[in-house]
Amino acid sequence: MNIPSSGAVALGLVIAAIAATGGMANSGSTSTVQCGIAKTTQNGMLALEGTLTSPVAVSGEYRFAIQSSSNGGSSNISQGGYFTANANEVMPLGKVMLNNGSSYDVVFDVTVDGKKIECDQNVTSLR
């Protein structure tokens, strides 16, 4: 089979890109994970949602725990479990609705490749 030189170069670039992508998926994936808590208002309620995104596919575990209090009382909510996130997609990991004006404390963390990542910062969007 006779491949023109421009075709051979293109084929070489494709093979190099595939090899580079494969290496990235297996090394340092936790350093590329971005996560945080998105706050929005929905129907007069405060919505808190844990979100995660990564340039490579990742899987792991998450914990999303909220302690809240208001004039109507207090609550402790704990969510968590296993997740798998596709590359470059925002993955919601837990969501709660609270009375607007409630005081609250949130703990949100994920574990990827055996490494725990604290995700307690507020984010507008990870997109």
Q: What is the 3D shape?
A: elongated
CATH topology call: Immunoglobulin-like
Strand line-up in the sheet with most strands: 5-2-1-8
Estimated helix fraction: 10-25%
User: What is the C-level CATH assignment?
Assistant: Mainly Beta
Distance between the termini: 45 Å
Total separate domains: 1
State mean pLDDT (0 to 100 scale): 78
Largest sheet: 4 strands, mixed
Reading the helices and strands in chain order gives: HEEEEEEEE
Portion in beta strands? over 45%
What is the count of helical runs?
1
Query: Radius of gyration, Cα only, in angstroms?
Result: 20 Å
Class based on secondary structure composition and strand pairing: alpha+beta
Protein name: CsgH-like domain-containing protein
Keywords: Signal
Organism: Devosia psychrophila
Protein traits:
elongated; 127 residues; 1 helix; four-stranded mixed β-sheet; Immunoglobulin-like
Topology (SSEs and partners):
Elements: H1 5-26, E1 34-42, E2 45-53, E3 58-70, E4 73-85, E5 91-99, E6 103-112, E7 115-118, E8 122-123
Parallel strand pairs: 1-8
Antiparallel strand pairs: 1-2, 2-5, 3-4, 3-6, 6-7
Structure description:
Mean pLDDT is 78; it is low at 1-27. The chain has a single domain, classed as Immunoglobulin-like, CATH 2.60.40.2420. The protein contains 1 helix and 8 strands, in the order αββββββββ. The chain starts with a helix and ends with a strand. The chain has a 4-stranded mixed β-sheet with strand order 5-2-1-8, with no helix packed on it. Strands 4-3-6-7 form a 4-stranded antiparallel β-sheet, with no helix packed on it. With 127 residues, the chain is of the alpha+beta class. Residues 1-19 form the signal peptide. InterPro entries: CsgH-like, CsgH_dom, Curli_assembly_CsgC/AgfC.
